[in-house]
Design goal:
By secondary structure, the protein is mostly helical. It is built from 4 helices and no strands. The mean pLDDT is 80.
């Protein structure tokens, strides 16, 4: 993820934009790809563990966790936003 964000920053900087704009664009791209990776369950390959060590395979998948949930279930998880409600 860091390599992708760095490549995006370098590519945008090569276009002649300011350093802060490059950083902002790279941040948004890196964050979006990370959220997509969590949603789709993409993971980087891990090194082999030592012999005899149990490796847990219970990585949470954001997409699988919320797929098919009802409005009330999403609300109970804190993932539902009421459009009409305003706390301002």
């Amino acid at each position: 993820m860091a390599v992708l964000t760095s490549v995006v920053w370098i590519a945008v900087f090569a276009l002649g934009l300011s350093t802060w704009i490059c950083a902002g664009i790279a941040l948004v791209v890196g964050y979006a790809v990370r959220v997509l990776a969590m949603y789709r369950g993409w993971e980087e390959p891990l090194a082999e563990g030592p012999t005899g060590v149990y490796v847990h395979e219970d990585r949470p998948l954001l997409g699988a966790k919320i797929k098919g949930k009802s409005e009330s279930e999403l609300r109970s998880l804190g993932l539902w936003v009421d459009e009409a409600r305003s706390d301002r």
